[in-house]
Amino acid sequence: MPAPSTSPLVSVGMPVYNGERYVAQAIESVLSQTETDLELVISDNASSDRTADICRDYASGDSRIRYFRNDVNLGALPNFNRAFLLSRGTFFKWAAHDDVLRADYLRLCTKALEDAPDAAMCQSAIEYIDEAGASLGVHAHHIEGSQAEDGAMRFTAMVLRPHDCYGMMGVLRRNIVDRAMPLESYHGADRALLARMALYGRFVSLPDALLQVRDHAGRYSRAQKNIRDRATWYDARNAGKLSFPVWRMYGSYWISIASSSLSGGEKARARLSLLRWWFVNFNSIRMAVDIAGSVAPGIVDAAESFKQAVFSPAPGPGDVRRSGKR
């Protein structure tokens, strides 16, 4: 396969840490894309298993792969930022090391963005799979309001409606990501990034399930059980520090509106949505739990588990698991 141009159509950034079990399948799914004007940027976060050997072996056989390794584990979100900064494509996609792309995923998503120059992101429906690759069910991944032409309406949809944040793992328009970056280092930073992107462009979705997301015991959302562990997982510099992620996310929303190019009237409507934010999706309770978690770190996970079991499942994998689709 010939090397891509210095500015390929699409860059795929794959941040990875100790991903030996699934990373080869994820890499294969990128290399098998029908859209071939691509590069795969792998940012290895100082893995201690066979991840480096696997990635270097693939890189030696395909010039579209650029492999980088951090000297120390930076934490997940600095590594996500690094994968983006090392890339060069007109469009960009973060790819999890345990997810799988259908062969037409990049071609169809980039075409959708080329056909809609005012769009910031394209994501397909998502098929959740288990550790062995068996289907758990399909999540449509359509956030009502995110396709609106009005920036304040899009922002309102992203901050008030529950969603799984997998729009961040769609194909993104690079010049808009540049305006929204960086991913900050707290739980919910992906939601804040999507809200910022929504201020600059609408989101489009494809109905077919072209992305397989693996739901397994080793996923961050299952493995990190308290607020302190989560904070350090997101950024190693957070170790030993108080985080207050929900408060930081909410503050980021206000800053995003102030720095956007919306008109005065649009900014007013976007700010109104943040006043409404306190009264939806248990957000007031989340704020209180955020503070309590600084004293009793396990309370955050316990509260979220209770909310999902009693009131509503987590958007995405929780939806398909509760539906019983296997």
Structure, explained:
With 326 residues, the protein is α/β, with parallel strands linked by helices. Helices cover 42% and strands 17% of the residues. The protein has 14 helices and nine strands. It has helices at residues 23-31, 51-61, 76-85, 105-115, 151-160, 174-180, 189-198, 220-223, 227-234, 245-259, 264-276, 283-292, 299-310, 317-323; strands spanning 10-16, 38-44, 65-69, 91-94, 100-101, 119-129, 135-139, 171-173, 202-214. Strands 1, 2, 3, 4, 5, 6, 7, 8 and 9 form a nine-stranded mixed sheet that branches. Helix 7 runs parallel beside helix 10 (245-259). It starts with 9 loop residues before the first strand and ends with a helix.
Distance between the termini: 38 Å
How many strands, what sense, and barrel or not for the largest sheet? 9 strands, mixed
| Dominant shape | globular
- Tell me roughly what share of residues is in helical segments: 40-55%
Low-confidence stretches: none
Count the beta strands. Answer: 9
Mean pLDDT level:
90
Tell me the series of helices and strands, N- to C-terminal: EHEHEHEEHEEHEHHEHHHHHHH
List keywords for this structure.
single chain, 326 residues, alpha/beta, 9-stranded mixed sheet, 14 helices, 9 strands, 42% helix, globular
Summarize the structure in short.
The longest helix is centred in the C-terminal third of the chain and has 15 residues, at 245-259. Strands 1, 2, 3, 4, 5, 6, 7, 8 and 9 form a nine-stranded mixed β-sheet that branches. This protein has helices at residues 23-31, 51-61, 76-85, 105-115, 151-160, 174-180, 189-198, 220-223, 227-234, 245-259, 264-276, 283-292, 299-310, 317-323; strands at residues 10-16, 38-44, 65-69, 91-94, 100-101, 119-129, 135-139, 171-173, 202-214.
